[in-house]
Structure formats: structure tokens, C-alpha cells
């Protein structure tokens, strides 16, 4: 596995983990700042979760999507 692909994959998956319950620290912080309930915040977050999961699946199964730009920038 390419280290760049692994790094991008880990960043995307860990970012999804930051805003999904039960450990979603950014979910708790943003609900506290906005002064709304966590349930209300989680309901509004569902479309973004679906998009995040789809993007992570694309990144995992098609590494060429991630490696295309670094391949062209650092081509010798």
C-alpha cells in the first residue's frame, strides 16, 4: 500500500470518527457552542455522514483517485 494513499485514507476515516457518536468530540463541542441538543445536531449531520462514507469507500477501493495528483506533481 502506498504511504500517501494510507495517509489520506486514515485522515478521512478519522475525520468521520470525530463527528459520529458516541465518541464524536466535535459533535459534542459544536452542539454545546450552538446550544442545541446532540440528537438535533446528529439528525442534521446525516447527509454529511452519508457523503463522508461514500468518499471513504471511493478512496479505499480506488487509490488512483488519491494518487493521481501526487503522481503528476512529483513525476520525474
Describe the structure in your own words:
The protein is an all-alpha fold and 76 residues long. It has one domain (7-71). The chain has helices at 3-18, 25-34, 38-61, 63-73.
Helices and strands in order, then pairings?
Layout: H1 3-18, H2 25-34, H3 38-61, H4 63-73
Helix pairs in contact: 1-3, 2-3, 3-4
Low-confidence stretches: none
Approximately what portion of the residues adopt beta-strand conformation?
under 5%
> Order of SSEs, N→C?
HHHH
Count of β-strands: 0
Number of helices: 4
Structural domains: how many: 1
Largest sheet: none
Could you report the average pLDDT, rounded to the nearest whole number? 89
Task: Specify the structural class.
Answer: mainly alpha
Return Rg in Å: 16 Å
| Residues in helix, % | over 70%
Distance between termini?
21 Å
Shape: elongated
Amino acid at each position: 500500500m502506498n504511504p500517501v494513499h494510507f495517509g489520506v485514507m486514515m485522515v478521512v476515516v478519522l475525520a468521520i470518527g470525530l463527528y459520529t457518536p458516541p465518541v464524536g468530540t466535535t459533535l459534542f463541542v459544536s452542539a454545546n457552542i450552538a446550544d442545541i441538543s446532540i440528537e438535533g445536531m446528529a439528525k442534521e449531520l446525516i447527509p454529511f455522514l452519508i457523503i463522508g462514507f461514500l468518499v471513504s469507500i471511493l478512496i479505499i477501493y480506488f487509490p488512483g483517485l488519491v494518487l493521481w495528483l501526487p503522481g503528476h506533481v512529483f513525476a520525474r
